[in-house]
Amino acid sequence: MKSGKQSSQPEKGTSRILSLTVLFIAFCGFSFYLGGIFCSERDKIEAKDVTRTTTKAVASPKEPTVTPIQIKSVSFPECGSEFQDYTPCTDPKRWKKYGVHRLSFLERHCPPVYEKNECLIPPPDGYKPPIRWPKSREQCWYRNVPYDWINKQKSNQHWLKKEGDKFHFPGGGTMFPRGVSHYVDLMQDLIPEMKDGTVRTAIDTGCGVASWGGDLLDRGILSLSLAPRDNHEAQVQFALERGIPAILGIISTQRLPFPSNAFDMAHCSRCLIPWTEFGGIYLLEIHRIVRPGGFWVLSGPPVNYNRRWRGWNTTMEDQKSDYNKLQSLLTSMCFKKYAQKDDIAVWQKLSDKSCYDKIAKNMEAYPPKCDDSIEPDSAWYTPLRPCVVAPTPKVKKSALGSIPKWPERLNVAPERIGDVHGGSANGLKHDDGKWKNRVKHYKKVLPALGTDKIRNVMDMNTVYGGFAAALIKDPIWVMNVVSSYSANSLPVVFDRGLIGTYHDWCEAFSTYPRTYDLLHLDSLFTLESHRCEMKYVLLEMDRILRPSGYVIIRESSYFMDAITTLAKGMRWSCRKEETEYAVKSEKILVCQKKLWFSSNQTS
């Protein structure tokens, strides 16, 4: 630079940079080329695999082989004798954890997974196979439900009476001292619709020992008895031991696990529910579950207060005030007084749209009309709403008086089937035909089905109640369970004149141990195994199944070996059967629970 000559160093640097750039571009291009070849070859491999599988499937009509899931053998231990009446989600030992407001501690409060028991619940000392229906309606073995408190407190009201080794049920009650049959006769005089098949389904809140529901069975009315686990000691267990439909439950802070417009009739015989308190919110729940044109029957306070008040530890003025408040609330909810005689009063839920329109137009009305954001059928851990659920136009043909009478309604496609995804009248007809064939086959592999050996039956995951419909002429009743996670088909079940409930099988069912003779499930594990652990579902089935009771498991072959292994660990005896069409992908497992007694038995 000092000599004035230009240096050659910049030229050499520029040349090196250009060379490196060209080399880098060439390398990238070559890599891209190799990557393209690799990817195309990989796609060819995958395509070959798919083609091979497809060709194989087309070439052979046989179903693809599925390797069944396998688990290690297991043997479940016995629970202690203190668990003999264990109800996991209504456990008295857990009540102190929850509030006393509106008795909410009596609602469902299930234990977390880490607190679930993995043991087999023993029967009480001296347990015997239940007396068979229909004799069971009148008597049961004392040792099967060994409760003395309810016997001492209610024997004077003729609820039940202990004689020797049995409880006898004379059919009495607090409000029907002349017997339940005489009481229902009076009720039928007030509600003629109970005689001609118009009224088919009913719910009895605060059911006692379910004598009302038991009497209705002979009259073609299927009643579901409802009571909490409280100081009355096992009302629901007595009902089920007698062979009468019942479920644990209470109207408190959450909706009952039933759809809207479900029951044709609701009944309360001095059930001690404070109907006029908390703004009448309990009456609003009755309004939700009773179908338009249906009835609510009340006997006891404050009905007939001018004659009865002296026996209610109150004053006539207080009872008159309570009655007027009750009547005002019912009127504001579109109930009308239908009939009254002596201790029985009847109200009817209006199906007339004009009454609900008046509530909607009156901004100051109480209770107000529920807005469209509140789903009327949402009923699994759903809070009670202080508003009136107005019937939708779709429910018009489901109103009592519009819906066909029993037994015709069992085989008529309800209007609400259109609300179920894919639901139709043809779909219901096909479903019924399918279940008739299946039940015919079931009776071949389980001859006890259809005899007096089986009374209380549960269909653990029904759709339209086809299994129950196929058994309608047999001496049984069926609890139809619709998963809270599946399509909402339970309104169709009720519209057909059957009964059921919502439930999530990841949790325990709302019943006592040893309350069902037969549990039936169809592909439950296929549908729910991603959420619910198979082991806990089967242990829950063992809890609610009676000793010597049966299980019919219709399931994918994939699960069969695992189910059989767990069943063996629960002391069930099982045998695998073919389906009615002998398909390879699906099998039937027929099991029977053995009668065993605790090794720590005191007698």
The proportion of residues in beta strands is 15-25%
Strand order of the largest sheet: 6-5-4-7-8-10-9
Biggest pleated-sheet summary: 7 strands, mixed
List the uncertain runs: 1-15, 32-61
What is the percent of helical residues? 25-40%
What is the average per-residue confidence, as pLDDT, rounded to a whole number? 88
Distance between the termini: 117 Å
Number of strands: 17
Radius of gyration: 32 Å
What overall geometry do the principal axes of the alpha carbons give? globular
- Structural category is alpha/beta
Short description:
The chain has 603 residues and is of the alpha/beta class.
Task: Note down, in words, how this protein is organized.
By secondary structure, the protein is an alpha/beta fold. The chain is built from 15 helices and 17 strands. The strands form 3 sheets. A 7-stranded mixed beta sheet has the order 6-5-4-7-8-10-9, sandwiched between helices. The radius of gyration is 32 Å and the shape is globular. The model is unreliable at about 1-15 and about 30-60 (pLDDT under 50).
